[in-house]
Design goal:
Blueprint: H1 2-18, E1 21-27, E2 37-40, E3 46-48, E4 54-57, E5 63-70, E6 77-83, E7 88-89, E8 92-94, H2 112-129, E9 133-147, E10 152-153, E11 156-157, E12 171-185, E13 189-199, E14 222-225, E15 227-230, E16 241-251, E17 254-263, E18 272-278, E19 283-292, H3 293-296, E20 301-313, E21 318-332, E22 335-349, E23 362-366, H4 375-381, H5 388-404, H6 407-417, H7 424-427, E24 429-433, E25 438-443, E26 450-452, E27 456-468, E28 475-485, E29 490-500, E30 508-519, H8 528-538, E31 545-560, E32 563-576, E33 611-623, E34 627-631, E35 634-638, E36 645-654, E37 664-675, E38 681-692, E39 712-713, E40 736-744, E41 762-772, E42 778-790, E43 793-805, E44 808-817
Parallel strand pairs: 1-7, 1-8, 13-23, 23-34, 39-44
Antiparallel strand pairs: 1-4, 2-3, 2-5, 5-6, 9-12, 9-22, 10-11, 12-13, 14-15, 16-17, 17-18, 18-19, 19-20, 20-21, 21-22, 24-25, 25-27, 26-27, 27-28, 28-29, 29-30, 30-31, 31-32, 32-33, 33-36, 34-35, 36-37, 37-38, 38-40, 40-41, 41-42, 42-43, 43-44
Length: 819
C-alpha cells in the first residue's frame, strides 16, 4: 500500500513538472473518477482523467478562466480560477447528478421519451450537415489485459506474451498510444496523419490504433462491431428499442434528458443503457451504452461498453464528441481478460479549407520518426495521464526490451524452444536462431498421412529454411518436400524458393519445381483429409489425379495502387495415373470408380495422354478506388470499397509435344461483399471465360469448377464454388459463365421469431448457377443456418441444397464452417 501511495505521488510530481494545469477528480466518497472530461470553457483545449482519476491540461497562459468538469452520471462542475503561475493544481469533487421529472409535462397518452427520440430523428439530418467537413486533433490509447493465460494455446507455446504476464499468467499484453491529425469530408473522404506513436515494449513499433477504426457514431443507423449493431437513434430505431425517460437535469441553461434504452428482443444486434439528450437542441449530450458478445455473435466476448461525451460548440450550434471510451471483457477456454480503448478529440475546425489534394486513397500515414518520441514529449502532449499500472508497464517493458533484444537473451530463449523431444519426430520440429533471424524446420510425416486409390496410404515429409529481416520486411524461404505412396511405390520430390522483397508493393519472386500428384482441378476442390474419409468409409474416391513434373517461376507486384500483377511461366510434363488399390475400412457391395474423371467406370483408359508443354499465365487483380494505410514497414488495404474486385486472367500454352494442346484462355471474375446495415451481408461472384483454339486440348487444361459431392464443405468457397456440383461432369473447353450469390441475414429474420431467436442463429440463402456450351444449365439453391455450435464455440453451418440440371434434381444437406 505504501508503495502505491509513493508511486502516486511520483506520478503527480512528474505530471506537474511537464504539464500546466493538473489535479485529481473524485466523488463525494473520495473515490477517483476515471475518464472525466475537463476543458476550458469557450476553448478548444480539453483532456480526460485517467483510470486513477488524475488529469493534466496543457495550457500556459495566465489569467482568469472557467474550468469545466463533465462526467456522465454526475453534475457538471464549473470552477473559476485565476492563474498567476504554472504549474497550477486544481482538484475537483463531483456530486452524483440528481434527476427529476418536474420540468417535463407528462401526458398519459404519450411516452415523453418517445417524443424526445422522434425530435432527435427529425433533427438528425441537420445535425449531421453541421459536421459534414472538419479537421481535429486525435489522441487514442489502447490497453488489453489477460488473466490466467494458459502455457499453450492449441498446442502453441504462448510464453509471457512480450513480457506482459507475471507469475500468475496475468498482466498487460498490449498498451499503445497515438497522436494524430484527422480530416473528414462527406460522404467518405478521410485522412489521418499520425505524428506520434508508442507501443509498450517495442521502441520500433507502430500502434494500430487509428481514428477511422475508432469512429463509432450513434448518429449512424448502424455501428460496425463485427456485426452491424443498430443505433438507438437509427431511423428505424423504434423497431428495435423501447425508451423511458428516467430524469432530467440542467447543464447551464440547457435541460438534459436522461433516457433509458431497452432492446425489444434479446439477441438482436442492439445496445442497452442510457442516452443523454439536450432538450430543444435535440442532440446527444452523452451516451453510456453496452452490447454483448451474443449480440455481435462473438460468443467469447462478455460485454462491450461505449461511453461518449459531447461539448457544445456555440459557433456551429453543435454538440461535438470530445471523448470516447470502449471497455471490453472476454473469456475463452478458462482464461479471459479485459481492456479499454480511449479517444480524445480536440481543436475542431468545421470550416476547413480543403482542396483536391486534401484527400486521396491513402487514409492513414505516419510522420517521419513518429515512433521515436521520447518520454518528455509524451508527458507534455499526452492528454490523459498514465495510470500507475500503465506507467509501470512502460517502464518494465522498456527495460525488458533492451534485455530481450540482446543476443544472450534470445539465445537462451531459443535454447529452451529448440529442445528436441521424442514427439517432434512425429509432429514436426523447428530450430530457430532469433538473433540472426533464421529458422530450420522439419515437417513430420504423421500430420500428412492420407489415403487415395492411386497411392494407397501416403505421407509427406519436408524440410524448410527461412531467413528474414527486421519486421519481416524482406523474407526468403527455401523448402523441399518428399511424398511417398505405399501402393504405387513412388517417391516424388518438390522444391520451392520464395523471396519477398518488400511489404509496400509486395514484390515477390517464386521458383519451384519437381514431381507431384495433382488433382485435375488445380484448386483441389476436395481436400486430402475429406477424400481419405470418403474413400475409406464410404468407398467414394472422388479425387482424380495425374502426375505433374514441372518447373515454373512466378513474379507478383502491385504496380500501382489497387493493381496487383502476377505473372507465371513454366514447363510441365503430364502423365496419366491409375488406381493401384481398393482398400476400405468397411466391406461395401459396390466398387471404387476409376481414376478417369471422363469415364469413371473405365479402368483401362487414361483421361490424358503423356505430353509436355510450356505455359504462361498473367493475372491482374484490380481493386477499384482502393483505400489503404501506409505504415513505415508496410502497406495495408482497407476493405471498405464500394466497388467490386476485378480479376482478369490470360493463359497461353506453347511448344506442346502435340500442337493440338496449344491454346489460349481468357477469363474475368467480378467479386464483392457488401454490408447492408442491420439486414446482413450480401456477396456475389461472377466469372466468365472462353478458349481460343481449344478444340483438342488435354483434359488437364479444361476449365474445371469447384464442385462438391460430399455432405461437408469446409473450404468456405461460397462465392467461388458449389455445394452439390459433380467435380468434373461440367468441365469445359468452350465458353462458360458461373454466378454465385449469397446473403447472410445475420439475425434479421430468425432474431425476430419467438423461441428461435433465443438460439441466436443466422438465416443464410444463396443461388449458384453454371452455364457451359456442352451441358444443360446447372443451378442450385441453398438455405441454411449458421452460428451453430456449443457454448462459446459457434462456427458451424448447415444448408439444405437443391440442385437442378434439366430434368434432373437432387437434394442434400451440407455441413460446413462459418467464419
Amino acid at each position: 500500500m505504501l508503495k502505491k501511495i509513493l508511486f502516486t505521488v511520483i506520478v503527480l510530481v512528474c505530471i506537474q513538472v511537464q504539464s500546466q494545469i493538473t489535479g485529481s477528480v473524485t466523488n463525494a466518497q473520495n473515490e477517483p473518477l476515471p475518464y472525466v472530461n475537463i476543458y476550458l470553457k469557450n476553448a478548444a483545449t480539453g483532456t480526460t482523467t485517467n483510470g486513477d482519476g488524475l488529469y493534466s491540461l496543457n495550457f500556459n497562459k495566465t489569467g482568469t478562466y472557467t474550468v469545466t468538469f463533465q462526467f456522465l452520471g454526475y453534475t457538471t462542475k464549473n470552477v473559476e480560477v485565476t492563474i498567476t503561475e504554472f504549474p497550477f493544481t486544481l482538484n475537483a469533487v463531483l456530486e452524483e447528478e440528481t434527476t427529476s421529472l418536474d420540468e417535463v409535462v407528462l401526458d398519459s397518452k404519450i411516452n415523453p421519451a418517445d417524443r424526445i427520440i422522434r425530435e432527435v430523428l427529425k433533427e438528425k439530418p441537420q445535425t449531421l450537415s453541421k459536421q459534414k467537413a472538419y479537421t481535429a486533433d486525435f489522441y487514442s490509447r489502447g490497453l488489453w489485459r489477460v488473466e490466467n493465460a494458459p502455457e499453450k494455446f492449441f498446442g502453441q507455446e504462448l510464453g509471457d506474451l512480450g513480457g506482459g504476464l507475471d507469475s500468475t499468467r496475468t498482466g498487460i499484453v498490449y498498451l499503445s498510444e497515438t497522436i494524430s491529425k484527422i480530416a473528414y469530408q462527406e460522404p467518405n473522404d478521410f485522412n489521418e496523419i499520425i505524428t506520434a506513436s508508442k507501443v509498450s515494449g517495442d521502441s520500433n513499433g507502430f500502434s494500430f490504433n487509428s481514428a477511422q477504426e475508432a469512429d463509432f457514431s450513434f448518429y449512424n443507423n448502424t455501428l460496425e462491431i463485427q456485426a452491424q449493431v443498430v443505433s438507438p437513434i437509427a431511423d428505424n430505431a423504434f423497431n428495435y428499442y423501447t425508451y423511458k425517460l428516467v430524469g432530467t437535469f440542467k447543464e447551464g441553461d440547457k435541460l438534459i434528458n436522461k433516457i433509458q434504452v431497452t432492446p425489444k428482443r434479446k439477441n438482436d444486434r442492439v445496445f442497452s443503457g442510457i442516452l443523454y439528450i439536450v432538450e430543444d437542441d435535440w442532440q446527444l449530450y452523452g451516451a453510456d451504452l453496452n452490447t454483448s458478445g451474443a449480440a455481435i455473435q462473438v460468443p467469447f466476448v462478455d460485454s462491450l461498453v461505449f461511453k461518449h461525451s459531447f461539448k457544445y460548440n456555440a459557433t456551429q450550434k453543435l454538440w461535438v464528441k470530445i471523448s470516447q471510451s470502449i471497455d471490453f471483457s472476454f473469456k475463452l477456454f478458462g482464461f479471459g481478460g479485459n481492456g479499454r480503448f480511449s479517444a480524445v478529440y480536440s481543436n475542431y475546425d468545421f470550416k476547413p479549407q480543403f482542396d483536391r489534394k486534401s484527400f486521396s486513397n491513402e487514409v492513414l500515414s505516419f510522420k517521419p520518426e513518429a515512433n521515436k518520441k521520447d518520454s518528455l514529449f509524451w508527458q507534455q502532449i499526452r492528454p490523459i495521464p498514465l495510470t500507475i499500472e500503465e506507467r509501470t508497464d512502460y517502464i518494465r517493458k522498456d527495460s525488458l526490451q533492451e534485455i530481450r533484444d540482446s543476443k544472450p537473451y534470445k539465445d537462451s530463449v531459443d535454447n529452451a524452444r529448440n529442445t528436441f523431444k521424442f514427439t517432434d519426430v512425429l509432429m514436426g520440429y523447428s530450430y530457430q536462431n532469433t538473433y540472426d533471424k533464421w529458422r530450420l524446420s522439419y515437417d513430420a510425416i504423421l500430420p500428412t498421412i492420407s489415403y487415395n486409390t492411386v497411392q494407397g496410404f501416403n505421407a509427406t515429409a519436408g524440410v524448410s529454411y527461412s531467413k528474414w529481416t527486421e519486421d519481416y520486411i524482406q523474407a526468403t524461404t527455401l523448402s523441399l518436400k518428399a511424398n511417398y505412396g505405399i501402393d504405387d511405390e513412388r517417391l516424388r520430390f518438390t522444391g520451392r524458393i520464395a523471396k519477398r522483397f518488400d511489404r509496400i508493393k509486395n514484390t515477390t519472386v517464386i521458383l519451384e519445381g519437381g514431381s507431384k500428384m495433382q488433382q485435375f482441378n488445380s484448386e483441389e476442390p476436395i481436400s486430402g483429409i475429406i477424400n481419405s474419409l470418403a474413400t475409406l468409409v464410404w468407398k467414394k474416391n472422388f479425387a482424380k489425379y495425374y502426375e505433374l513434373n514441372f518447373a515454373r517461376a512466378t513474379f507478383s507486384q502491385e504496380l500501382f495502387n489497387g493493381f496487383q500483377l502476377t505473372a507465371q511461366a513454366g514447363y510441365e510434363k503430364r502423365m496419366p495415373l491409375f488406381n493401384t488399390t481398393d482398400q476400405t475400412l468397411f466391406n461395401r457391395d459396390f466398387a471404387y470408380t476409376s481414376n478417369n474423371p471422363l469415364n469413371p467406370q473405365d479402368f483401362n483408359t487414361a483421361a490424358i495422354q503423356t505430353h509436355n508443354l510450356g505455359k504462361v499465365n498473367v493475372q491482374a487483380m484490380i481493386n477499384f478506388d482502393q483505400k489503404y494505410m501506409s505504415y513505415p514497414d508496410g502497406k495495408f488495404k482497407v476493405d471498405d470499397s464500394k466497388y467490386p474486385t476485378l480479376y482478369v486472367t490470360a493463359e497461353q500454352t506453347f511448344a506442346a509435344s502435340d500442337a493440338n494442346y496449344n491454346f489460349t484462355e481468357l477469363n474475368a471474375e467480378l467479386r464483392q461483399e457488401l454490408t447492408l446495415g442491420n439486414k446482413g451481408n450480401f456477396g456475389y461472384g461472377f466469372t466468365g471465360g472462353t478458349f481460343l483454339n481449344g478444340d483438342n486440348i488435354s483434359f488437364v487444361d479444361y476449365q474445371h469448377f469447384n464442385g462438391n459431392q460430399t455432405f461437408v464443405n469446409f473450404r468456405n468457397l461460397r462465392l467461388t464454388g458449389f455445394n452439390n456440383l459433380p467435380y468434373y461432369d461440367y468441365s469445359t473447353k468452350e465458353s462458360f459463365f458461373e454466378a454465385h450469390v449469397e446473403h447472410n441475414f445475420k439475425g434479421f429474420i430468425l432474431g425476430k421469431i419467438p423461441g428461435i431467436r433465443a438460439l441466436n442463429l443466422n438465416l443464410v440463402t444463396g443461388v449458384h448457377s453454371l452455364l457451359t456450351q456442352e451441358n444443360k444449365p446447372y443451378t442450385e439453391f441453398n438455405i441454411g443456418v449458421d452460428n451453430l455450435g456449443f457454448g462459446k464455440l459457434k462456427f458451424l453451418r448447415v444448408d439444405y441444397v437443391r440442385s437442378f440440371s434439366g430434368p434432373n434434381q437432387k437434394g442434400a444437406f451440407v455441413f460446413g464452417l462459418s467464419f
